[in-house]
Protein backbone atom coordinates (compact mmCIF):
# COMPACT_ATOMS: atom_id res chain seq x y z
CA UNK A 1 0.00 0.00 0.00
CA UNK A 2 1.54 3.28 -1.11
CA UNK A 3 0.99 6.86 -0.05
CA UNK A 4 2.96 9.97 -0.95
CA UNK A 5 2.02 11.52 2.38
CA UNK A 6 2.24 8.54 4.70
CA UNK A 7 4.93 6.37 3.10
CA UNK A 8 4.84 2.61 2.74
CA UNK A 9 3.79 0.40 5.62
CA UNK A 10 3.35 -3.36 5.92
CA UNK A 11 0.06 -5.16 6.11
CA UNK A 12 -0.77 -6.30 9.65
CA UNK A 13 -0.25 -9.97 10.31
CA UNK A 14 -2.87 -12.43 11.27
CA UNK A 15 -6.34 -12.56 9.69
CA UNK A 16 -9.10 -14.18 11.64
CA UNK A 17 -12.72 -14.47 10.41
CA UNK A 18 -12.09 -11.84 7.76
CA UNK A 19 -10.99 -9.36 10.36
CA UNK A 20 -7.50 -7.93 10.71
CA UNK A 21 -5.90 -8.80 14.01
CA UNK A 22 -3.99 -5.86 15.44
CA UNK A 23 -2.16 -7.98 17.88
CA UNK A 24 0.72 -8.50 15.45
CA UNK A 25 3.95 -6.63 14.99
CA UNK A 26 2.52 -3.47 13.50
CA UNK A 27 5.11 -0.72 13.87
CA UNK A 28 2.91 1.75 15.76
CA UNK A 29 5.75 4.03 16.68
CA UNK A 30 6.73 4.51 13.04
CA UNK A 31 3.37 5.06 11.39
CA UNK A 32 0.86 6.37 13.95
CA UNK A 33 -1.11 8.43 11.41
CA UNK A 34 -1.40 5.54 8.97
CA UNK A 35 -2.56 3.26 11.75
CA UNK A 36 -5.26 5.75 12.80
CA UNK A 37 -6.51 6.23 9.25
CA UNK A 38 -6.58 2.47 8.53
CA UNK A 39 -8.58 1.89 11.71
CA UNK A 40 -11.07 4.66 10.82
CA UNK A 41 -11.54 3.27 7.30
CA UNK A 42 -12.42 -0.12 8.70
CA UNK A 43 -14.71 1.24 11.41
CA UNK A 44 -17.02 3.09 9.01
CA UNK A 45 -17.94 -0.05 7.06
CA UNK A 46 -21.52 -0.82 8.11
CA UNK A 47 -21.50 -3.35 10.92
CA UNK A 48 -17.96 -4.46 10.14
CA UNK A 49 -16.31 -3.38 13.33
CA UNK A 50 -19.06 -4.75 15.55
CA UNK A 51 -19.21 -8.11 13.72
CA UNK A 52 -15.56 -8.93 13.29
CA UNK A 53 -13.67 -7.33 16.13
CA UNK A 54 -15.90 -7.08 19.18
CA UNK A 55 -13.22 -7.47 21.80
CA UNK A 56 -9.69 -7.65 20.54
CA UNK A 57 -9.36 -4.26 18.81
CA UNK A 58 -7.82 -1.74 21.20
CA UNK A 59 -9.24 1.76 21.51
CA UNK A 60 -7.28 4.06 19.22
CA UNK A 61 -7.30 7.79 18.70
CA UNK A 62 -9.44 8.51 21.75
CA UNK A 63 -9.90 12.24 22.34
CA UNK A 64 -10.29 13.63 25.82
CA UNK A 65 -13.86 14.45 26.77
CA UNK A 66 -15.53 11.71 24.71
CA UNK A 67 -15.66 13.60 21.39
CA UNK A 68 -14.00 10.71 19.47
CA UNK A 69 -16.36 8.13 20.99
CA UNK A 70 -19.30 10.16 19.67
CA UNK A 71 -17.62 10.26 16.24
CA UNK A 72 -17.25 6.47 16.15
CA UNK A 73 -20.87 6.01 17.17
CA UNK A 74 -22.05 8.22 14.35
CA UNK A 75 -19.84 6.38 11.88
CA UNK A 76 -21.02 2.92 12.92
CA UNK A 77 -24.68 3.94 12.62
CA UNK A 78 -24.22 5.38 9.14
CA UNK A 79 -24.91 8.99 10.28
CA UNK A 80 -23.04 11.97 8.81
CA UNK A 81 -19.71 12.76 10.45
CA UNK A 82 -20.26 16.56 10.84
CA UNK A 83 -20.64 17.88 14.37
CA UNK A 84 -24.18 18.36 15.56
CA UNK A 85 -25.31 21.85 16.62
CA UNK A 86 -25.40 20.77 20.26
CA UNK A 87 -21.74 19.75 20.02
CA UNK A 88 -20.84 23.45 20.18
CA UNK A 89 -21.00 25.58 23.30
CA UNK A 90 -24.48 27.07 23.11
CA UNK A 91 -23.51 29.57 25.81
CA UNK A 92 -20.73 31.07 23.71
CA UNK A 93 -22.78 33.80 22.05
CA UNK A 94 -24.87 34.46 25.16
CA UNK A 95 -21.71 34.67 27.25
CA UNK A 96 -20.17 37.16 24.83
CA UNK A 97 -23.28 39.34 24.92
CA UNK A 98 -23.35 39.25 28.71
CA UNK A 99 -19.67 40.22 28.87
CA UNK A 100 -20.23 43.11 26.46
CA UNK A 101 -23.22 44.39 28.45
CA UNK A 102 -21.32 44.08 31.72
CA UNK A 103 -18.32 45.98 30.32
CA UNK A 104 -20.54 48.81 29.04
CA UNK A 105 -22.40 48.86 32.36
CA UNK A 106 -19.14 49.47 34.22
CA UNK A 107 -17.90 51.93 31.60
CA UNK A 108 -21.05 54.06 32.00
CA UNK A 109 -20.51 54.34 35.79
CA UNK A 110 -24.07 53.34 36.75
CA UNK A 111 -24.20 55.29 40.02
CA UNK A 112 -23.81 58.53 38.03
CA UNK A 113 -26.40 57.41 35.47
CA UNK A 114 -28.95 56.72 38.22
CA UNK A 115 -28.16 60.05 39.87
CA UNK A 116 -28.59 61.97 36.62
CA UNK A 117 -31.91 60.34 35.72
CA UNK A 118 -33.33 60.68 39.23
CA UNK A 119 -32.28 64.33 39.56
CA UNK A 120 -33.92 65.34 36.27
CA UNK A 121 -37.19 63.62 37.16
CA UNK A 122 -37.18 65.18 40.63
CA UNK A 123 -36.44 68.71 39.40
CA UNK A 124 -39.05 68.35 36.67
CA UNK A 125 -41.66 67.60 39.34
CA UNK A 126 -40.89 70.96 40.97
CA UNK A 127 -42.48 72.62 37.94
CA UNK A 128 -45.76 70.77 38.49
CA UNK A 129 -48.37 73.07 40.01
CA UNK A 130 -51.57 71.05 39.65
CA UNK A 131 -52.64 67.50 38.87
CA UNK A 132 -53.59 68.35 35.30
CA UNK A 133 -49.92 69.09 34.64
CA UNK A 134 -49.34 65.34 34.58
CA UNK A 135 -50.07 65.05 30.89
CA UNK A 136 -48.47 63.18 27.98
CA UNK A 137 -46.58 66.31 26.97
CA UNK A 138 -45.06 66.50 30.47
CA UNK A 139 -43.89 62.89 30.44
CA UNK A 140 -42.50 63.17 26.91
CA UNK A 141 -40.64 66.35 27.91
CA UNK A 142 -39.09 64.58 30.92
CA UNK A 143 -38.14 61.58 28.78
CA UNK A 144 -36.44 63.80 26.19
CA UNK A 145 -34.42 65.51 28.89
CA UNK A 146 -33.41 62.24 30.56
CA UNK A 147 -32.29 60.58 27.31
CA UNK A 148 -30.22 63.57 26.18
CA UNK A 149 -28.65 63.97 29.63
CA UNK A 150 -27.79 60.27 29.96
CA UNK A 151 -26.03 60.35 26.59
CA UNK A 152 -23.99 63.33 27.79
CA UNK A 153 -23.35 61.61 31.12
CA UNK A 154 -21.79 58.62 29.32
CA UNK A 155 -19.62 61.01 27.28
CA UNK A 156 -18.33 62.74 30.41
CA UNK A 157 -17.54 59.61 32.45
CA UNK A 158 -16.10 57.87 29.38
CA UNK A 159 -13.79 60.77 28.58
CA UNK A 160 -12.64 60.77 32.19
CA UNK A 161 -11.69 57.10 31.89
CA UNK A 162 -9.86 57.72 28.62
CA UNK A 163 -7.81 60.42 30.33
CA UNK A 164 -7.12 58.36 33.48
CA UNK A 165 -6.18 54.90 32.20
CA UNK A 166 -2.92 54.68 34.15
CA UNK A 167 -4.48 56.13 37.30
CA UNK A 168 -7.45 53.76 37.08
CA UNK A 169 -5.09 50.78 36.83
CA UNK A 170 -4.21 51.63 40.43
CA UNK A 171 -7.49 53.07 41.73
CA UNK A 172 -10.16 51.26 39.69
CA UNK A 173 -8.65 48.25 37.89
CA UNK A 174 -12.13 46.80 37.29
CA UNK A 175 -13.03 49.49 34.72
CA UNK A 176 -12.99 48.24 31.10
CA UNK A 177 -10.15 50.48 29.90
CA UNK A 178 -7.98 49.84 32.93
CA UNK A 179 -8.55 46.07 32.73
CA UNK A 180 -7.94 45.90 28.97
CA UNK A 181 -11.49 44.85 28.03
CA UNK A 182 -11.83 48.03 25.98
CA UNK A 183 -9.18 49.39 23.67
CA UNK A 184 -8.60 53.12 23.47
CA UNK A 185 -10.20 53.11 20.02
CA UNK A 186 -13.34 51.35 21.26
CA UNK A 187 -13.76 53.75 24.17
CA UNK A 188 -13.13 56.78 21.95
CA UNK A 189 -15.79 55.56 19.51
CA UNK A 190 -18.32 55.11 22.33
CA UNK A 191 -17.56 58.53 23.80
CA UNK A 192 -17.78 60.31 20.45
CA UNK A 193 -21.00 58.56 19.48
CA UNK A 194 -22.80 59.40 22.71
CA UNK A 195 -21.74 63.05 22.66
CA UNK A 196 -23.11 63.42 19.12
CA UNK A 197 -26.33 61.59 20.04
CA UNK A 198 -26.82 63.89 23.02
CA UNK A 199 -26.61 67.04 20.91
CA UNK A 200 -28.79 65.52 18.19
CA UNK A 201 -31.55 64.79 20.72
CA UNK A 202 -31.22 68.28 22.19
CA UNK A 203 -31.43 69.88 18.75
CA UNK A 204 -34.45 67.82 17.71
CA UNK A 205 -36.31 68.66 20.93
CA UNK A 206 -35.73 72.36 20.28
CA UNK A 207 -35.57 73.40 23.94
CA UNK A 208 -32.97 76.10 24.58
CA UNK A 209 -32.67 75.37 28.33
CA UNK A 210 -32.04 71.70 27.50
CA UNK A 211 -29.53 72.53 24.76
CA UNK A 212 -27.59 74.91 26.99
CA UNK A 213 -27.56 72.34 29.79
CA UNK A 214 -26.00 69.82 27.41
CA UNK A 215 -23.50 72.32 25.98
CA UNK A 216 -22.29 73.59 29.36
CA UNK A 217 -22.00 70.02 30.69
CA UNK A 218 -19.98 69.11 27.60
CA UNK A 219 -17.59 72.04 28.06
CA UNK A 220 -17.09 71.52 31.79
CA UNK A 221 -16.81 67.73 31.50
CA UNK A 222 -14.22 68.06 28.74
CA UNK A 223 -12.19 70.70 30.59
CA UNK A 224 -12.33 68.61 33.76
CA UNK A 225 -10.75 65.50 32.22
CA UNK A 226 -8.92 66.05 28.94
CA UNK A 227 -5.14 66.34 29.18
CA UNK A 228 -4.46 69.48 27.14
CA UNK A 229 -2.75 72.77 28.02
CA UNK A 230 -4.88 74.99 30.27
CA UNK A 231 -7.32 72.11 30.75
CA UNK A 232 -7.50 68.93 32.89
CA UNK A 233 -9.01 70.99 35.69
CA UNK A 234 -9.24 67.93 37.94
CA UNK A 235 -5.58 68.53 38.82
CA UNK A 236 -6.74 71.48 40.92
CA UNK A 237 -8.86 70.39 43.86
CA UNK A 238 -10.77 73.69 44.03
CA UNK A 239 -11.48 73.92 40.29
CA UNK A 240 -12.49 70.24 40.16
CA UNK A 241 -14.99 70.77 42.98
CA UNK A 242 -16.39 73.84 41.22
CA UNK A 243 -16.91 71.85 38.00
CA UNK A 244 -18.89 69.15 39.78
CA UNK A 245 -20.88 71.76 41.73
CA UNK A 246 -21.70 73.66 38.54
CA UNK A 247 -23.01 70.55 36.77
CA UNK A 248 -24.73 68.71 39.62
CA UNK A 249 -26.06 71.64 41.61
CA UNK A 250 -26.63 74.52 39.20
CA UNK A 251 -27.07 73.23 35.65
CA UNK A 252 -29.21 70.24 36.59
CA UNK A 253 -31.51 72.19 38.91
CA UNK A 254 -31.98 75.38 36.90
CA UNK A 255 -31.74 74.23 33.27
CA UNK A 256 -33.96 71.19 33.53
CA UNK A 257 -36.51 73.04 35.64
CA UNK A 258 -36.65 75.76 32.97
CA UNK A 259 -36.92 73.10 30.27
CA UNK A 260 -40.17 71.88 31.82
CA UNK A 261 -41.39 75.30 32.95
CA UNK A 262 -40.86 77.20 29.71
CA UNK A 263 -40.57 74.66 26.88
CA UNK A 264 -43.05 72.02 28.04
CA UNK A 265 -45.60 74.07 30.01
CA UNK A 266 -45.03 77.35 28.18
CA UNK A 267 -44.94 79.33 31.42
CA UNK A 268 -42.70 82.29 32.25
CA UNK A 269 -39.30 81.57 33.78
CA UNK A 270 -39.52 81.91 37.56
CA UNK A 271 -37.30 80.74 40.41
CA UNK A 272 -39.59 79.22 42.99
CA UNK A 273 -38.87 78.64 46.67
CA UNK A 274 -38.49 74.83 46.26
CA UNK A 275 -36.10 75.38 43.33
CA UNK A 276 -33.91 77.71 45.39
CA UNK A 277 -33.85 75.16 48.21
CA UNK A 278 -32.94 72.32 45.84
CA UNK A 279 -30.10 74.34 44.29
CA UNK A 280 -28.68 75.35 47.67
CA UNK A 281 -28.94 71.86 49.17
CA UNK A 282 -27.40 70.17 46.14
CA UNK A 283 -24.55 72.66 46.20
CA UNK A 284 -23.54 71.21 49.56
CA UNK A 285 -24.05 67.69 48.29
CA UNK A 286 -22.01 68.30 45.12
CA UNK A 287 -19.08 69.63 47.12
CA UNK A 288 -19.24 66.54 49.32
CA UNK A 289 -19.24 64.23 46.27
CA UNK A 290 -16.33 66.17 44.75
CA UNK A 291 -14.31 65.81 47.96
CA UNK A 292 -15.31 62.27 48.90
CA UNK A 293 -14.68 60.67 45.51
CA UNK A 294 -10.92 61.20 46.00
CA UNK A 295 -10.76 59.56 49.44
CA UNK A 296 -10.57 55.94 48.18
CA UNK A 297 -8.33 57.03 45.27
CA UNK A 298 -5.55 58.59 47.33
CA UNK A 299 -2.92 56.05 46.26
CA UNK A 300 -3.27 56.57 42.53
CA UNK A 301 -3.74 60.35 42.82
CA UNK A 302 -0.57 60.68 44.89
CA UNK A 303 1.41 58.51 42.45
CA UNK A 304 0.36 60.52 39.38
CA UNK A 305 0.56 63.99 40.90
CA UNK A 306 -3.16 64.77 41.33
CA UNK A 307 -3.17 67.28 44.19
CA UNK A 308 -6.61 66.51 45.59
CA UNK A 309 -7.71 67.66 49.02
CA UNK A 310 -7.33 64.07 50.21
CA UNK A 311 -3.67 64.01 49.12
CA UNK A 312 -3.04 67.34 50.82
CA UNK A 313 -5.03 66.95 54.03
CA UNK A 314 -5.34 63.19 54.52
CA UNK A 315 -8.27 60.81 54.34
CA UNK A 316 -9.67 61.25 57.83
CA UNK A 317 -9.73 65.04 57.79
CA UNK A 318 -11.45 65.23 54.38
CA UNK A 319 -13.89 62.52 55.45
CA UNK A 320 -15.05 64.42 58.50
CA UNK A 321 -15.28 67.67 56.53
CA UNK A 322 -17.68 65.87 54.19
CA UNK A 323 -19.73 64.53 57.08
CA UNK A 324 -19.93 67.98 58.67
CA UNK A 325 -21.09 69.60 55.41
CA UNK A 326 -23.81 67.02 54.90
CA UNK A 327 -25.05 67.23 58.48
CA UNK A 328 -25.24 71.03 58.12
CA UNK A 329 -27.27 70.58 54.93
CA UNK A 330 -29.66 68.20 56.68
CA UNK A 331 -30.09 70.65 59.56
CA UNK A 332 -30.94 73.46 57.14
CA UNK A 333 -33.38 71.16 55.28
CA UNK A 334 -35.16 70.29 58.55
CA UNK A 335 -35.44 74.00 59.42
CA UNK A 336 -36.66 74.86 55.92
CA UNK A 337 -39.23 72.07 55.94
CA UNK A 338 -40.63 73.16 59.29
CA UNK A 339 -41.90 76.39 57.68
CA UNK A 340 -43.95 74.60 55.05
CA UNK A 341 -47.64 75.53 55.00
CA UNK A 342 -48.60 71.98 53.97
CA UNK A 343 -48.72 69.75 57.04
CA UNK A 344 -48.07 66.53 55.12
CA UNK A 345 -45.10 68.04 53.24
CA UNK A 346 -43.77 69.51 56.49
CA UNK A 347 -43.86 66.19 58.33
CA UNK A 348 -42.32 64.24 55.45
CA UNK A 349 -39.52 66.75 54.87
CA UNK A 350 -38.57 67.12 58.53
CA UNK A 351 -38.75 63.42 59.42
CA UNK A 352 -37.09 62.31 56.18
CA UNK A 353 -34.05 64.58 56.58
CA UNK A 354 -33.78 63.72 60.28
CA UNK A 355 -33.60 60.00 59.46
CA UNK A 356 -31.02 60.54 56.70
CA UNK A 357 -28.87 62.68 58.99
CA UNK A 358 -28.94 60.04 61.75
CA UNK A 359 -28.10 57.23 59.30
CA UNK A 360 -25.13 59.22 58.03
CA UNK A 361 -23.81 59.91 61.53
CA UNK A 362 -24.17 56.30 62.74
CA UNK A 363 -22.47 54.82 59.70
CA UNK A 364 -19.68 57.41 59.72
CA UNK A 365 -18.73 56.42 63.26
CA UNK A 366 -18.07 52.80 62.28
CA UNK A 367 -15.93 53.36 59.16
CA UNK A 368 -12.66 51.42 58.96
CA UNK A 369 -10.15 53.82 57.37
CA UNK A 370 -7.68 50.98 56.89
CA UNK A 371 -9.94 49.27 54.35
CA UNK A 372 -10.22 50.72 50.85
CA UNK A 373 -13.26 48.51 50.24
CA UNK A 374 -14.99 50.03 53.29
CA UNK A 375 -14.23 53.58 52.13
CA UNK A 376 -15.51 52.82 48.62
CA UNK A 377 -18.65 51.29 50.11
CA UNK A 378 -19.21 54.45 52.14
CA UNK A 379 -18.81 56.54 48.97
CA UNK A 380 -21.59 54.48 47.38
CA UNK A 381 -23.63 55.14 50.53
CA UNK A 382 -23.18 58.88 49.91
CA UNK A 383 -24.66 58.36 46.45
CA UNK A 384 -27.59 56.50 48.01
CA UNK A 385 -28.22 59.53 50.23
CA UNK A 386 -28.02 61.62 47.07
CA UNK A 387 -30.76 59.51 45.49
CA UNK A 388 -32.90 59.70 48.63
CA UNK A 389 -32.66 63.49 48.65
CA UNK A 390 -34.12 63.69 45.16
CA UNK A 391 -37.07 61.66 46.42
CA UNK A 392 -37.67 64.30 49.11
CA UNK A 393 -37.08 67.46 47.03
CA UNK A 394 -40.43 67.34 45.15
CA UNK A 395 -42.17 67.35 48.54
CA UNK A 396 -40.58 70.64 49.58
CA UNK A 397 -43.44 73.12 49.05
Mind sketching the topology for me?
Layout: E1 15-16, E2 19-20, H1 32-43, H2 48-52, H3 67-76, H4 91-107, H5 110-126, H6 136-163, H7 165-171, H8 176-179, H9 184-205, H10 208-225, H11 237-264, H12 273-292, H13 298-303, H14 309-313, H15 315-337, H16 343-364, H17 372-392
Antiparallel strand pairs: 1-2
Helix pairs in contact: 5-6, 5-11, 5-17, 6-9, 6-10, 6-11, 9-10, 10-11, 11-12, 12-15, 15-16, 16-17
Quick overview:
This protein is mainly alpha-helical and 397 residues long. The protein has 17 helices and 2 strands.
Features:
397 residues, mainly alpha, Tetracycline Repressor, domain 2, 3 domains, two-stranded antiparallel sheet, disordered N terminus
Description:
The chain is mainly alpha-helical and 397 residues long. The chain is built from 17 helices and 2 strands. It folds into 3 domains: 15-87, no CATH class; 117-269, UbiA prenyltransferase (Tetracycline Repressor, domain 2, Orthogonal Bundle), CATH 1.10.357; 271-397. 67% of the residues lie in helices and 1% in strands. It has a two-stranded antiparallel sheet with strand order 1-2. Helix 12 (273-292) packs antiparallel against helix 15. The longest helix is centred in the middle third of the chain and has 28 residues, at 136-163. It is globular, with a radius of gyration of 34 Å.
Largest sheet: 2 strands, antiparallel
Structural class: mainly alpha
Number of strands: 2
Might you state the CATH topology name of the largest domain? Tetracycline Repressor, domain 2
Task: Compute the number of helices.
Answer: 17
| CATH architecture level-2 label of the largest domain | Orthogonal Bundle
Write out the strand line-up for the largest beta sheet, numbering strands in chain order.
1-2
Low-confidence stretches: 1-34, 36-88
Mean pLDDT: 81
> Beta fraction of the residues?
under 5%
Between the first and last Cα atoms, what is the distance in angstroms? 98 Å
Name the overall outline: globular
Share of helix, binned: 55-70%
Return the CATH class of the largest domain.
Answer: Mainly Alpha
Number of domains: 3
Summarize the helix and strand pattern as letters. Answer: EEHHHHHHHHHHHHHHHHH
Based on CA atoms alone, the radius of gyration comes out at 34 Å
By CATH's scheme, which homologous superfamily of the largest domain applies?
A: UbiA prenyltransferase
Amino acid sequence: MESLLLGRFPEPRGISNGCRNWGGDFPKDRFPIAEALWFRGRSISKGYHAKCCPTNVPERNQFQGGRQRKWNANAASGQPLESKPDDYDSNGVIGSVKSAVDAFYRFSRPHTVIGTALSIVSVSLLAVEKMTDFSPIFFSGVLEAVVAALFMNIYIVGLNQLSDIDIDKVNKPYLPLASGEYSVGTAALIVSTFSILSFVVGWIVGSWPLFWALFLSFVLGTAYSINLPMLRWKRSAVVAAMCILAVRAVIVQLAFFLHIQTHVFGRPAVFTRPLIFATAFMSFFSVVIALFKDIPDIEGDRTFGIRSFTVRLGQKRVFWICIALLEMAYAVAILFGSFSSNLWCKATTVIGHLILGLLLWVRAGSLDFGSKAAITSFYMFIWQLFYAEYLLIPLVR
